[in-house]
Amino acid sequence: MAGTDRKDNPKIGERERAKKPVRKPTEEEKAFFDKRTLAKKYKSSTPTLGLILEEAGLINEEMISDVVRNSDESAQSLKRSLISQGLVRESDILDALAQEMGMEKISFQDLRVTPELVQQIDSKTAQKYQVFPVRYDDESIHVALSDPLNIQTTDDLEKILGKKVIGVVASDEDIQKAIKRYYEGNEVAELYEGFTDQADQEMSPYKDYEEVDLNVSEAEQPPVVKFVDLIFKQAVHDRASDIHVEPARHGVVIRFRVDGMLHEVPSPPKRWQNAIISRLKVLAGLDLAEKRVPQDGRIKLNMPDKKLDLRVSSLPAIYGESIVMRILDQTTVIMGLEDVGFLPDNIKIFRELIKTPNGIILMTGPTGSGKTTTLYSALSTINNPETKIITIENPVEYQIEGINQMQVNEDIGLDFTKGLRSMLRQSPDVILVGEIRDLETAEIGIRAALTGHLVFSTLHTNDAASATIRLMDMGIKPFLVASSIQAVIAQRLIRRTCTHCKKPYTPHPEEILEIGYNPEKYRDREFFQGSGCDRCNGTGYRGRTAIHEIFIMDSATRQMVIRAESATKIKAYAVGKGMQTLRMDGWQKVLLGITTIPEVLRITQSDIE
């Protein structure tokens, strides 16, 4: 035994090794083993994203374990689950990914999309890998990646494109919307491919119609005619309210306003600019030779199932004439008060107001906030054989049977003032003046209200209480404002949550606090938002509704107006008496699942002064 070699006796070796001091691992080694241990807990690519978010302090191990158990194993699924459950904001995830991966983070709102940019990646590749080109040069291309953690995507793209691919981090929603808009079945995008090689002289705009008939064959039409017609078709298909054609330094920007938000469509080359603008001016009856002053005109649009009017405005700009077209559907059925967004309590108040025999009822809000639509709903409610109703508008947006409607025509001297004077000689009971623009129109309207007529009109102010101050600024005496105004209704349009992809979610407490309410009170309340689908074009919103602020004049507010007190004081008094502000009305629609907190915050201002 004595001669036994220590090397041959493993037990002796273990005892001696146990006597030696054990070296403690460094912080770097501990971090490495902690990551490796955590990575073994989770599967596939999920731990990579989980580790990034945990290191950024956005989640903890318990949160990620719960989410992984309830979802599939991909990083994209983990991201969607965290966002849908309200655990992490998408912007925070993108920031963490960008920092960890050393990538640039971009917003598509700042991205300038041109046909040349879109052509850098073909439609099939963009849709397969869920990527979108951001910028490029001869040797490389920057690409927005839906899953920046998947390095296989960039490897495949480099082989396909033959260039160095540099990934950038962007919102999934932005990428999907861009792919849908610029690659998936877009007639305008397909048009570029067919026309890019055609000569400039073929782009003649001079095929003059009194109206655009989109039912006729396009085979014999010049390219510019086809292009403009397809822009019209695409706008109507996308439910756009406006078409914007804006010359820029290197091209022509075309944007549609859908549900109040502007969206770009593929931009034509710069060389198309003059032909497109000339074509639109020809259709609108504008002077082709005059490019220095603004012009207004109209285009009749003949669709397969309806006829539309386009109100056209041209404006000189530094790179050429900017043209905006408002799409008006005169066949639209007039909606009831419930359909325009009034909640039950406000419907009751509004019905009582519009049945008053005299006075002025004003609708306030910015252009395109649905003021005229709401006033037409009111007129339809009181329209009967016993009531004589006359309107003067610019232009007549809806045609209503049983109502006498007059359109302003300044070319022959028929403006609001002259038309209003003539209307009073027709013995009307109810008058609608499209807009109070100046002192003279306001004075005639007030005189009509004080002599037994019910007058409806619109005004541009930020809230209802400010309307009184606006009239006094025009030059109306305070006692006339106080005695003639019955009520002022402020209105804004907000986007509706898409009913086809609406899902419950938990908002961040900061959002509820920002809108002016206590988050603790709504801890167990169910809120909804759209996740994005084909019907809403991936936005989570489809259609719009209105929010209202109904300010009713009583004896106390009349005295405040006569004393010319500030709009802030008048509003504070009205709120104290129970008036629901725009933000309050928006919050009620959030609780009903009609819209979302971010949408109300985007549209309304704080009620706290």
Explain what you see.
This protein has 609 residues and is of the alpha/beta class. Helices cover 39% and strands 21% of the residues. It contains 24 helices and 20 strands. The strands form four sheets. A seven-stranded mixed beta sheet has the order 5-9-10-11-6-7-8, with helices on one face. It has a seven-stranded mixed beta sheet with strand order 14-13-15-16-12-17-20, with helices on both faces. A hairpin with a 4-residue loop joins strand 6 (240-247) and strand 7. Helix 12 (223-237) crosses helix 13 and helix 16 packs parallel to helix 17. The N and C termini lie far apart (95 Å). Mean pLDDT is 80; it is low at 29-47 and 196-204.
Question: Brief overview, please?
Answer:
By secondary structure, the chain is an alpha/beta fold.
- Quick one: biggest sheet? 7 strands, mixed
- As a whole number of angstroms, the C-alpha radius of gyration is 32 Å
Name the poorly predicted regions.
29-47, 196-204
Mean pLDDT: 80
Based on secondary structure, the structural category is alpha/beta
Count helical runs: 24
Number of strands: 20
Q: Work out the strand percent.
A: 15-25%
| Shape summary | globular
Distance N to C terminus: 95 Å
**Share in helix:** 25-40%
Strand arrangement across the biggest beta sheet? 5-9-10-11-6-7-8
